[in-house]
Amino acid sequence: MNLQDVLPRIHWLGHDSFRIDGSKVVYFDPYELSTAVPADMIFISHEHFDHCSPSDVDRIRKDSTVIVTDQASAKKLSGDVRVVRPGDRLEVNGVDVEVLPAYNTTKKFHPKTAGMLAFVVTLDGVRYYHAGDTDFIEEMEGLEVDVAFLPVSGKYVMDADEAVLAARAIRPKVAIPMHYGAIVGSREDAERFQKALEGQVPVVILEKE
């Protein structure tokens, strides 16, 4: 994977929201979007309002858009919605999808029993891991991914120090911090994450679009 080719395709839209412009336009957790590029696929990690935003989904959804999410979120959405659970694997329009869990280990906001989601999406030969709202969990160990989107803000998710442990366990070709700058967390959390991983895992802090 050539980072110079891949990074320009990745757009951080704030909080946990990303858009990847590849052979398919893929979104993760669209929320408070400032632009509305039509989506081929939308991945939604769980039902909380800052991740499952039906109004934002409707702004980018086409008739052919496929939405992949959990049962709780699916109840709020319309269109071609595919309900999945941790452990599922599927292929949609040539895009390989592995569904993983996302949960807290020391907090009550995202219990494992709720079945909230993370995703490994293989698009154009690049494996993207969107960790969802999570702490550092055992399911991260040994993941073979190129790009890892990891929360860093603490309180509801893992903080920067815990995210460092996650990045060391995953060893992606690049880690991109998320879950800051809206609701909770700041750029300082992302910078602390980046500094702690110098010489170990490349970290790119994206500017919000």
Description:
The protein is built from 5 helices and 12 strands. It has 209 residues and is of the alpha/beta class. It has a single domain, classed as 4-Layer Sandwich (Metallo-beta-lactamase, Chain A), CATH 3.60.15. The strands form 2 sheets. A 6-stranded mixed beta sheet has the order 1-2-3-4-5-6. It has a 6-stranded mixed beta sheet with strand order 7-8-9-10-11-12, covered by helices on one side. Helix 4 links the parallel strand 11 and strand 12. Helix 4 crosses helix 5.
| CATH fold-level name | Metallo-beta-lactamase, Chain A
Structural class: alpha/beta
Parts with pLDDT < 50 across at least 5 consecutive residues: none
Query: According to CATH, what is the class?
Result: Alpha Beta
Largest sheet features: 6 strands, mixed
What CATH architecture would you give?
4-Layer Sandwich
Helix content: 10-25%
Count of alpha and pi helical runs: 5
CATH superfamily: Ribonuclease Z/Hydroxyacylglutathione hydrolase-like
Shape: globular
Strand order of the largest sheet: 1-2-3-4-5-6
The proportion of strand residues reads 25-35%
Mean pLDDT: 93
* Rounded Rg: 15 Å
Per DSSP E runs of 2 or more residues, the count of β-strands stands at: 12
Q: Report the end-to-end length measured between terminal Cα atoms.
A: 24 Å
Order of helices and strands: HEEEEHEHEEEEEEHEH
Count of folded domains: 1
Protein name: L-ascorbate metabolism protein UlaG, beta-lactamase superfamily
InterPro entries: Metallo-B-lactamas, RibonucZ/Hydroxyglut_hydro, UPF0173_UPF0282_UlaG_hydrolase
Domain Metallo-beta-lactamase: 14-179
Pfam family, one: Lactamase_B_3
